[in-house]
Design goal:
Layout (H helix, E strand, L loop, with lengths): L5 E3 L15 E2 L10 H18 L5 E5 L7 H9 L7 E5 L8 H14 L5 E4 L2 H11 L6 E3 L8 H4 L9 E5 L6 H10 L4 E5 L13 E4 L3 H9 L3 E4 L10 H9 L3 E5 L6 H4 L7 E3 L3 H12 L4 H14 L5 H22 L1
Parallel strand pairs: 1-2, 1-3, 3-4, 4-5, 5-6, 7-8, 7-10, 8-9, 10-11, 11-12
Length: 339
């Protein structure tokens, strides 16, 4: 095995840092799987690999949600006992506070792993305010790394951006599709397409809703041809859904997002400027949908679509990498100063 000065296990194309450490990405060695048995095997492999790499790395950028068994966080619990420890930045979505038992189990894991971790990189300003208290760690370790849109120009330009008479929603994480299904019942004259596996096996889907599971390219096409895009999010203690609503904005679509007790939305969307933030109720979605379709509001809608495309360019992958690099550099400097 090589002895990289710096290893990345999250899917980041980070450049060499000013401090001189060079990136080595290992993410591709641990592909995700929907099969629980395969996921467990992958998690075990990843856990042992991290323990093997740790003594040889100056910096490790890890993933708090690298699988249902959280191998990265688990590895940090053991790394704390190593004589030579790398600087560790824990990144990605972090954890949502679940029920009593789940929350206290996760909090115990964080408490045990925390001595190994120099920085936690969260995706929203709201998380920055609550993260330290929620998990019992020092607020001095928490930094914000605002997320980015992920569609490439080639993906966006693969076909014409049309409006084909339906409302699109997609994604699996932290979605409140029950509210959207009720919205569809209230608007039987509107057509909805929902791309998700969350609704598998449901027998109560309204006739004006088409639920599909599609590959990435088809997901992009469905969004490209939608009249508007809704991201119905569940209130929780971490942000979610940024990819979906930022990608919709990148396409110049009206992006409608539930902002009621949902972290992160106002970091990206200004209500009725570059998108629409609703209260997450079926009545709120229905009212917003009809407002967008109202001919009297078409000038405002076109302006909003234009501003969506313009303002979303603030949230690029390059900006995300710059921010993450600065968090890493800061942690390195702090570690060197304390020696």
């Amino acid at each position: 095995m090589q002895n990289p000065k710096y290893i990345v296990t999250v899917d980041l194309d980070l450049p060499p840092l000013k401090s001189g450490v060079l990136p080595y990405s290992a993410f591709a060695q641990f592909p995700s799987s929907r099969n629980l048995r395969e996921e467990f095997i992958t998690s075990v492999r990843r856990f042992w690999a991290l323990l093997k790499w740790a003594p040889h790395c100056e910096v490790m950028v890890l993933d708090s949600v690298s699988g249902p068994f959280h191998p990265d966080m688990l590895a940090c619990i053991f790394i704390r006992f190593f004589q030579k420890r790398p600087i560790i930045i824990m990144a990605d979505d972090m954890w949502n506070k679940g029920g009593f038992l789940k929350y206290h189990f996760q909090k115990t894991m964080v408490h045990l792993a925390d001595p190994s971790i120099q920085r936690y990189a969260v995706h929203s300003l709201g998380e920055e305010k609550i993260f330290a208290q929620l998990w019992g760690i020092s607020p001095k370790k928490v930094r914000v790394c605002i997320y980015n849109f992920t569609f490439t120009d080639a993906e966006i330009n693969a076909g014409p951006i049309n409006s084909n008479g339906y409302i699109f929603a997609g994604g699996n994480s932290a979605r409140d599709y029950d509210s959207l299904l009720e919205t569809a019942r209230q608007l039987p004259h509107r057509q909805f397409v929902i791309a998700t596996r969350v609704l598998n096996g449901r027998s109560d889907i309204p006739t004006n809703v088409n639920v599909v599971q599609v590959p990435h390219t088809e997901f992009i096409r469905l969004m490209r041809e939608a009249d508007m895009v809704i991201t119905p999010l569940v209130p929780q203690t971490r942000s979610a859904g940024q990819q979906t609503y930022l990608n919709a904005m990148r396409m110049g679509k009206i992006s409608i997002v539930n902002g009621n007790k949902v972290l992160g939305v106002t970091d990206y969307i200004q209500n009725h400027v570059n998108g629409i933030i609703t209260d997450g109720t079926p009545e709120g979605y229905s009212k917003t949908i009809e407002w967008v379709y109202d001919p009297a509001h078409q000038d405002a809608v076109k302006k909003m679509m234009q501003l969506a495309q313009e303002t979303v360019m603030e949230f690029t992958y390059e900006r995300y990498l710059r921010t993450m690099s600065s968090i890493i550099e800061e942690a390195i400097e702090e570690a060197n100063t304390s020696k």
